[in-house]
TrEMBL record:
Extent of Polar residues compositional bias: 79-90
Matches recorded under PANTHER family: RAB GDP/GTP EXCHANGE FACTOR, RAB5 GDP_GTP EXCHANGE FACTOR
GO terms for cellular component: cytosol; early endosome; endocytic vesicle; recycling endosome
Alphabetic keyword roster: Acetylation, Cytoplasm, Endocytosis, Endosome, Metal-binding, Phosphoprotein, Protein transport, Transport, Ubl conjugation, Ubl conjugation pathway, Zinc, Zinc-finger
Domain VPS9, residue spans: 242-385
Subcellular location as annotated: Cytoplasm; Early endosome; Recycling endosome
GO biological process terms, semicolon-separated: endocytosis; protein transport
Membrane-traversing stretches: none
UniProt-recorded name of the protein: Rab5 GDP/GTP exchange factor
PROSITE patterns hit by this protein: VPS9 (PS51205), ZF_A20 (PS51036)
KW Mitochondrion (keyword) present: no
Domain called A20-type: residue spans: 22-56
């Protein structure tokens, strides 16, 4: 393994230091024939990595076995305490203390798998875990994070060298963001957007990756990054996202009386297929809050929108238009009242891949959802074609609008009577609208009269200030072609001449 030149260099360095070193002592302890390093306990770099890996795996296995044993002991202790609660000499306070201590030791042991090998870092992690044990939801999040990490590693292996570069960039970004927790959420959003742009440019310019593979890679990068960053950047305490969520939720609850007819929603829930589509759309928009990746949240919005389009198509027997879609989306949001709606919208806006928001159907449906939320926040009597008095009564809960369905009728009532009642209700609504139109027309007439009087007065004031003066006509100038042309000294007129061809 040693060349003659390397042997000479080694002997020369030893002679300069005045140290006589036996060449056999410098060999690796494992007998591979390479130089050993005292800092690595006499092993070469390759053999040291193998030994360290074996020791690490053994330590991990022992820790897992210890954690499982502690878990079993905890469950057995808890079961025995429940079965012999009155017969045990151990008091309740001592049992709780023992249970807390065992749980703390178990969590601290498992936490060692994911902490640094340094002694100071391990002690810090133990202190933090002892103060705040992880609940079950955090364990589920950790399981999901591990699953996403494995899927990401398996994915980047298909990209070979570009994949290794992507993984290094992602790890560097996560390490950088871990030291930037004190930054505002807007600054963290800018860092994430810059990271997306840099990775995409790096794949296209340096590695010459095709655009379709770049888009797929960016989706996986977003999934890996945001799954690990979710608990730090979703609805952070430094923002007022939670306050906005409560305001929107309270607003939607106050608007529970809004009917599809008020919003001009072209959907009939009496049709079973349409009713199923409405339920699926509400389920999808509610499920958005359970996702951790912005792309997955957008997928829930897209699925909800497609169910809405299908419901409109079945009801009208024709393709739906954008004018039909937005009112129906508003109705779905009012009926579903999705949890943490504003936080999800802000999270998508801040940390989603910008190319997905600016193009494609996901961006279109997300824009419509933002418009629907803005409409609900500013909803008033004029938006629903109601008088202000009726709107105030509905909002305060004093009265509720009449239902258009004939649920209150008995089964013996014929369909003609039900249809007649519906027609009467519709006529009453049309009568109210007609009265509003007449009142608005009278107001417009009054405005026109006032405008005419104002213009007339302005004209009179201008005429009075600047009176019109009519001056006498001045003597007309002689025409050039008049008969008196002697004194004008004009040349004689041209005479036509004929030339022979």
């Amino acid at each position: 393994p040693f060349s003659s030149s390397s042997r000479r260099k080694m002997n020369l360095k030893s002679e300069r230091r005045g140290i006589h070193v036996d060449q056999s002592e410098l060999l690796c302890k494992k007998g591979c024939g390479y130089y050993g390093n005292p800092a690595w306990q006499g092993f070469c770099s390759k053999c040291w990595r193998e030994e360290y890996h074996k020791a690490r795996q053994k330590q991990i296995q022992e820790d897992w076995e210890l954690a499982e044993r502690l878990q079993r002991e905890e469950e057995e202790a808890y079961a025995s305490s429940q079965s012999t609660q009155g017969a045990q000499s151990l008091t309740f306070s001592k049992f709780e203390e023992k249970k807390t201590n065992e749980k703390t030791r178990k969590v601290t042991t498992v936490k060692k798998f994911f902490t640094a090998s340094s002694r100071a870092g391990a002690k810090k992690a133990e202190i933090q875990e002892a103060k705040a044990p992880s609940p079950s939801i955090h364990r589920q999040a950790s399981i999901e994070t591990d699953r996403v990490s494995k899927e990401f590693i398996e994915f980047i292996r298909t990209y070979q060298k570009p994949g290794q570069d992507i993984y290094k960039q992602c790890k560097l970004f996560l390490d950088t963001m871990s030291h930037k927790r004190d930054l505002s959420i807007e600054e963290q959003s800018e860092c994430a957007q810059d990271f997306y742009q840099n990775v995409a440019d790096r794949l296209q310019t340096r590695w010459k990756v095709p655009p379709e593979k770049v888009e797929k890679a960016m989706d996986e990068v977003e999934k890996y990054i945001m799954t690990r960053q979710y608990k730090y950047v979703f609805c952070p305490e430094t923002t007022d996202d939670e306050k906005k969520d409560l305001a929107v939720q309270k607003r939607i609850r106050a608007l529970h009386w809004v009917t599809p007819q008020m919003l001009c929603v072209p959907v009939s829930e009496e049709i079973p297929e349409v009713s199923d589509m409405v339920v699926k759309a509400i389920t999808d928009i509610i499920e958005m809050d359970s996702k951790r990746v912005p792309r997955d949240k957008l997928a829930c919005i897209t699925k909800c929108s497609k169910h809405i389009f299908n419901a409109i198509k079945i009801t009208k027997n024709e393709p739906a238009s954008a004018d039909d879609f937005l009112p129906t989306l508003i109705y779905i949001v009012l009926k579903g009242n999705p949890p943490r709606l504003q936080s999800n919208i802000q999270y998508i806006t801040r940390f989603c891949n910008p190319s997905r928001l600016m193009t494609g159907e996901d961006g279109y449906y997300f824009t419509n959802l933002c418009c629907a939320v803005a409409f609900i926040e500013k909803l008033d009597a004029q938006s629903l074609n109601l008088s202000q008095e009726d709107f105030d009564r509905f909002m305060t809960g004093q009265t509720s609008p009449k239902k258009q369905e004939s649920d209150s009728f008995s089964p013996d009532v014929c369909l003609g009577v039900k249809q007649m009642c519906k027609s009467l209700d519709l006529l009453s609504q049309l009568n109210e609208r007609q009265e509003r139109i007449v009142s608005e027309a009278k107001k417009l007439e009054k405005d026109l009269i006032d405008w005419t009087d104002g213009i007339t007065k302005e004209v009179e004031d201008i005429v009075e200030k600047y009176p019109l003066e009519i001056k006498a006509k001045s003597q007309a100038l002689a025409a050039i072609d008049s008969e008196n042309v002697e004194n004008d000294k004009l040349p004689p007129p041209l005479q036509p001449q004929v030339y022979a061809g």
